[in-house]
Amino acid sequence: MTALALRNLSVTLRGRPVLRDVSLSVARGEVVGLIGPNGAGKTTLMRAALGLLPFTGESDLAARPAAERARTAAWLPQSREIAWPMSVERLVTLGRLPHLGAGQGAGPEDRAAVDRALDRLGLAAFRERAATRLSGGEQARALIARALAQETPLLLADEPIAGLDPAHQIGAMQTFAALAGEGRAVVVSLHDLGLAVRHCTRLVLLDAGRVVADGPPGEVLTPARLAEVFRIRAFHAETEQGAVWQALDVLEEA
Amino acid sequence: MSRLALALVALVAALFLLSLVVGPAEAGPGRSLRALVLGDGTPLTLVMREIRLPRALLALTVGAALGLSGAAMQGYLRNPLAEPGLLGVTGSAALGAVIAIHTGLAAALPLGLPLAALLGAAAGVGLLAALAGTRGGSLTLILAGIALSALAGALTSLALNLSPNPYAANEIVFWMMGSLADRSMTHVWLAAPLVALGAAVLMTLGRGLDALTLGEDAAAAMGYGMGRLQVALVAGTALAVGAATAVAGAIGFVGLVVPHLLRRVVGAQPSRLLWASALGGAAMVLAADVAVRVVLPERDLKLGVLTAIVGAPLFLHLVYRTRRDLG
User: Of A32, A252, B24, B104, which sits 20 to 30 A from A95 (CA to CA)?
Assistant: First the structure.
């Protein structure tokens, strides 16, 4: 079942084409890693898909009414904003806003969703703490939990694991995989290709606003593409402990 | 209803009663209230119904308008230093009133002054909307508000500069300090419906402001676009604060300090801060309006002066506390 369908999506910002003719379809059960160098258009692609940017082409998500879209897809922006010193529990409960009826407070179902999200990110002990007083990585986890609490069929996350410690980076990726296992879909942008290779079911490589490659990690990250797009050389092998990928060095300009 | 709501409602009710029984006409609280309710035709009934009741009702209305719009402004701009005056509506309402005093309109028509102030507020918000647009950008909104405040302030100074006689200048200066003395039920009927309408619009912002805690992008993805929030914020604030300023003059610091004081108590949630600040603002203005009658009964101490004298040190304390928390 399709969770997201984009056709010929193009975005031009201030006369500069940022995204060109991107077509992409994401099915339930997939963890799609969106990779590419800085400025390749990863954030723009997700924001346009959500209808947060003016675009040409088609996005089934952006075509929905705002309230329905909010129950279909959760968006975790890259900028980690927590404006007020509210408790972690209140912060995560904000994810339930799209599910509340007019004048209705959070019910038992909402509280259960918040508990599940807190547990998944290992934040149960932080429940009462002011979110603004947590460390940067803990804030990032609280915001991931907020997006999870929205319990949407699709999650779009923009560099959610940047700045987390290794255990929590792996933990977050495993959480995304678990969501996919429950029949949801996750689109996640990330720069750590080693984690992308291990935890994403599929990679979409963007460069200069175009999709350069789309497929299983092993097929996308060929030495030729790594050289062309990232200008790096890498070690990549299937081992007994799963796929191992490690960047080795930067290639000189040809 | 939460314990906090009950406590605030009880506080407002107590201060409202206190406001009714404090005044130069010496009469016991029991007699005063009986005269108000029963209407026994004595002069005391007249005092209660024509002087003290409108004054207490206006303090309630004006305070709620200032507290609520302050909380809404801070939530929208995600800045604890924001206050309703930032939009320039207060300044343009004051300009309208000043023009009414200057031209003699205020003296010629019984409601000339507040109506001119409302007109000023309406013109101001029209200019604001034209300048800031409705796409929703907090920076352009602040800049437009500052420009509007500066313009209104300059024109107010011009009116003072050109005032026909020292009495007019005196009247303008005193009016701008803000007061609830010598208002009638007509003022209540003029301001209360507009404040109620503005408050109803501002209360719809609750969930949007909650979502905005996560940033503009996350809020937009949850279905709360900045454009619609900004339209509601500007319209609601203009109605509530414009009407409040028209009948009471410029009363500062309430919209700034009250949300700040109550933020911790409501767990920093912007939607809960809205109603809490409305009640808190009402309590603060009621208390301040009782104080001006008690502290210097003979000297006509102005309400706006008192809120500033109390508010500024309170605010300094909050700044100190914030600095300590950050350090």
Answer: A32
CA B51 vs CA A35, B14, B181, B188, B195: distances in Å:
71, 19, 8, 11, 21
Q: Do A80 and B234 form a contact (C-beta atoms < 8 A)? A: no
User: How is residue B215 written in tokens?
Assistant: 């940033």
Q: Are B303 and B285 in contact (CB under 8 A)?
A: yes
Range of the domain at A199: 2-250
* Cβ-based neighbour number of residue A102 at 10 Å: 5
For B206, phi then psi, to 5°, come to: -40, -60
Contacts B207 to A, Cβ<8 Å:
97, 100
Overall pTM surpassing 0.90 (yes/no): yes
B224: which 2 tokens?
Answer: 């709360």
Tokens representing residue B213 in the block: 């805690």
**Which CATH number belongs to the domain containing residue A8 in this structure?**
3.40.50.300
Q: Looking at beta carbons, which residues of chain A come within 8 Å of B220?
A: 52
* Sequence spans of domains, chain B: 3-326
Total domain count, chain A: 1
Taking the CB of residue B308, how many other CB atoms lie within 10 A of it?
Answer: 20
A121 in contact with chain B, both atoms CB, cutoff 8 A: no
Closest CB from A87, A98, A130 relative to B223: A98
Is B224:A67 a contact under the CB 8 Å cutoff?
A: no
pLDDT tens-digit readout, B59-89:
999 999 999 999 999 999 999 889 998 999 9
Which pair of structure tokens corresponds to residue B95?
């300009």
d(CA A124, CA B177) in angstroms, rounded, equals: 52
| Domain covering B3-326 assigned CATH 3.40.50.300 in the classification | no
**Other Cβ atoms closer than 10 A to B140:** 14
Q: How many residues does chain B have?
A: 327
Interface confidence, given as ipTM, is 0.92
Q: Where does the pLDDT of residue B22 fall: very low under 50, low under 70, confident under 90, or very high at 90 and above?
A: confident
Phi, psi of A105 (to 5 degrees): -90, 180
E strand or H helix at A250: strand A242-250
Q: How far apart are CA B134 and CA B239, in angstroms?
A: 17
Angle ∠(A74,A80,A85) on CA atoms, nearest 5: 105
